[in-house]
Specification:
4 copies of one chain form a homotetramer. By secondary structure, chain A is an alpha/beta fold. In chain A, 34% of the residues lie in helices and 18% in strands. An 8-stranded parallel beta barrel of chain A has the order 7-8-9-10-11-12-13-14, surrounded by 6 helices. In chain A, strands 2-3-1-4 form a 4-stranded antiparallel β-sheet, with helices on one face. A two-stranded antiparallel sheet of chain A has the order 5-6. At the A-C interface, strand 2 and strand 3 of A face strand 2 and strand 3 of C.
């Protein structure tokens, strides 16, 4: 931690700051510039957490030097993590595809989709049973009934299954039926839910919040891992910007940035990011080329009949065509698929 | 709802769209332009909710004409609402000030603050017992113990009290101690929590999400009101932008926009929006001048000792000076204070 | 300037950095932390401008300590500036209102407006002769003919006049007719134009760029002042965000932020910021309450007939009503008007 | 164009609107809904440009149906354009790489780079002679001297050369030395410069503005093409968002969006978008996979010695390694390289 003093800070003000630092058992290094004085803090800065040094007389600003997340930080865990979900392993050797409908609508819809996406190469079946919807008057999901269809589809196909949870109650229920839970963009800072997901020990897909920085996202993952659950996969799904020709702006730079900062796998969801079916294929390829460990793609037997997010869903044929096209990209990236 | 067809849409495609609309018992109005054909839908568009018209052949895009929120919409409830919280009434006749510490730290800290802010003119005491914090290693709040201090402060001063709730459990607990609950920016789309807040019947302060549009915010309020609870106050607290000289960008335009779209009261929180103490006073005055029904301001007996958000907190003296300065602005705005 | 080394930086790497700093005649202060080493640079950091220290082995990042703008910086010029424009003086004692049509359309339109806005209290007449328009097929302005009408209106009313310039040619021409030139949001980083505006010596109204940080804005002003022209007034006019219910998001926090960082006056343009007539009045009052030195407001004899930006223009009656309402706000802010 | 009336609009108000439309020789189609009335306008809407229909009594809002750009619009020119620059042809069959230093520093620096990038597969040499810099105290470029080095490098290597122009003067000068001019992000709406670039007839690389929507970008291109110059290549270079771990947020979705809306080629600049050398390679591959027609990449003989943007520049070895890795991606995309 570095403390930058104001240009007109008095010697007394500087001394008060260094005294405060030393009173906590830390060391203060002074660097007196021609315009400003800088104080470096040496030692465990959490000892200063309650000191509000920003408010001390003569202090201009505080610059943190180390990240606030630890267990998900690559600095302390340099090798990439492998996360097992059912028979799938998400990590640097594989391109893992999660596919399925935005919302589960019926047993048949889900099972048909499961069979189709498995055939095309998906390793994990996705499907929403609890739908977070902007308006209370939109379809909210089949809830536990949908989870039962998930379990049936898993048994029938051997695919691992993932479902979003939007509350502690949904988390408890889903734990009985699925292999992996998803925490969606709107709940990325629902800290209660993150902690419970941590306690559950289940693999967690943590989507980036709509306006979350990468550091906030990694701190959200830290909530899960600090409860003892290291089974976390991150998912970039677009951030909110002023551009309106896509639903969100897919931030593919997040893939190499996460790779540099964390050991956790990161996948990409081009369906929600763009909201437009014809952009899913080019951005899926781009994600693999950027180094993503997997993709989450919406597939529906009849997008025009879907109760939720039809416009961005692929048909079975679209999806099969896409996975065929992705194979050489996976190979170039050194990934099995 | 208006359906804009593609320039090359065939007559058959247009007919399929109008047939679909009419099959749901609605009427379709055709408008054939020189370049494109437009189809207007007359009737209750929710009957089309599951139709995914965007995907029909030849459709370019769908333009919604009416808002998805109803009960909070000014169109259907033209007069402004008055929300009672303890002895306070939030609405067009009054400037209601909510003040107190970011986090409750002790019985004495809270009680001292309650006495000071009451003396300076605040009507409601705020204080955080459940703190949503970016890092799991930051102070998370005193929880129920803090709520007990809240109740004590209410009994001692007669002030109404408000506390943020971050989970269903916190909501249930808080309901026993406080007059109004706050749903914070990070939980604005925690729909489970919104529904429960609706069922509780308690007055709710609904903060705008960090990247929420005003329409999404009003839809979040619709979640609460559609459960039968009309006691909602909105709070603008800054949105996330690229500018870094303030913590967030306070969107004061939201005040007249909400006034035009909804009958609900709207207040402003300049403390969280800016994150900088010296900007709180000018933006408080600006909020009142823009038409806000109230303010939420952080006050702490010793900001430099605060466990959370010290840099933006006012001292008792600062706050007393501010409320004195606000009086003529309230008067100009036609509000008692 | 502070250099933060990587956690695994070798002693040799640190030595190379300090040697480089000292080879330029500066001093390097070492601060060895438990996790990272920090190097403070003492002396004139511009001597290091070409060194690309970010790329030296072992360097994690560079933190600048002082701002890159000097002459507009309050640190080196603590008292607020007063800028004279014709008979008007923009500064801390006065509320200066600039009003007029978005685009100049005819001699009569401009003169009628000049008379009306002068009567209502405006000190400066605005009007666009060179219009930057998103589409090449939109009305682009009357150019020099419009400037002549400006001069006529000035002679007839005694008002000072301001016009936007969008090119060196427009700047040269406008210099013959107007008292103040405006550099618009789209040209805030048209550095050639900024330098020429600096050389002209004319008072300059510098609007904030659509996505400019406050620091970039002040650096743009530094381009003008560093050519010897200190006659600069800043104008906040809304920034681009994801919110669509207003054209841009008016960042009123910019007013106190500029006040803290610079001695230059700052005014606010609520017409362009919101794009909606009925939001102009509440945000004008808010701007004055936040401490703005003036306002720029669009007024048109017949907004429904305007060739440009009619929806946000006030009628003469609207404007007269607004200035009447602003008087007590100006008085509260300690400003003549 | 569609006009949505307010729920309480009177019959007279609707009639006035339709009368106005018909008075311009257009046709108005009425669609009376249960809540609102909608008026479709049939005919050439530019006839209504000066009518400010938004302001007519009873009008809620106007929804445009057709884009304001015409000549760059794919609807009116369905086949992709091929743009010749020296010996290079930018278009669907080729991956065109533009590479070179951010700023031209010396004849030797530029020539060495030209030879290295040609060897590695670049078709066009880039180099900045006029540098738009945030601060007036940063290095501003060698100007015409730099352009002479450009011409030398072209003669020595046969590469086509491109240079950014920041003013009409720079454009005139550059036209004597280079094969293609670049209009940078900060000048994307410098309409004077766009028009002159249009008149010059030279191939133009038009970078996307920092906060420009894709529609504004295409309208900027329309300024060039409407002056008779169809030789335009678009360049996505990152947009401004709240995320700070990269300099800007690269919006790769822009590639398929442009492909859908326009016939112009689009390339990607991952160097400026990220500002970080190690992110250039993964995002270059991603851009090719997303369908980009080319890349613009910064290369410098000694990034640590660069006068501008060293941190994002590749060394010759880095660049050679990158182009080797890009070859199979180009092949997958069906492009020669």
């Amino acid at each position: 931690m570095i403390i930058i003093m104001k240009p007109d800070a008095s010697k007394e003000a500087v001394k008060k700051v260094t005294d405060l630092i030393e009173s906590k058992g830390l060391r203060a290094h002074l660097s007196e510039g021609t315009q400003v004085t800088i104080v470096g803090v040496v030692g465990d800065k959490t000892l200063l957490a309650d000191s509000n040094l920003e408010l001390a007389e003569g202090v201009e600003k505080i610059v943190p030097v180390t990240e606030s997340y630890k267990l998900v930080n690559k600095k302390f865990h340099p090798n990439p993590s492998y996360i097992s979900v059912g028979n799938a392993v998400i990590g640097p050797d594989t391109l893992t595809i999660m596919a399925g409908p935005c919302a589960i609508e019926s047993s048949k819809q889900l099972l048909d989709t499961a069979i189709a996406v498995k055939k095309a190469g998906a390793a994990i079946l996705r499907g929403g049973a609890y739908k977070p919807r902007t308006s209370p008057y939109s379809f909210q999901g089949l809830e536990e009934e949908g989870l039962k269809y998930m379990k049936e589809a898993r048994e029938a196909t051997g695919l691992a299954v993932i479902c979003e949870v939007t509350s502690l109650h949904a988390l408890e229920t889903a734990a009985k039926y699925v292999d992996m839970i998803q925490i969606g963009a709107r709940n990325m800072q629902n800290f209660e839910l993150l902690k419970e997901a941590g306690k559950s020990g289940l693999p967690v897909l943590l989507k980036r919040g709509l306006a979350a920085t990468i550091d906030e996202w990694l701190n959200a993952a830290e909530y899960i891992i600090s409860e003892g659950n290291p089974n976390i996969v991150l998912c970039e799904r677009g951030i909110r910007t002023y551009e309106t020709s896509t639903r969100n702006t897919l931030d593919l730079s997040a893939v190499p940035v996460i790779r540099r900062k964390s050991h956790l796998p990161v996948i990409v969801d081009p369906s929600h990011a763009t909201g437009v079916r014809e952009y899913v294929a080019p951005l899926s390829k781009a994600a693999v080329a950027a180094g993503a460990d997997g993709l989450m793609i919406e597939v529906h037997p009849c997008p025009a009949c879907a109760l939720s997010d039809g416009p961005q869903s692929l048909t079975f044929d679209d999806f099969e065509k896409l996975t065929a096209e992705l194979k050489p990209y996976a190979k170039l990236a050194g990934r099995k698929f």
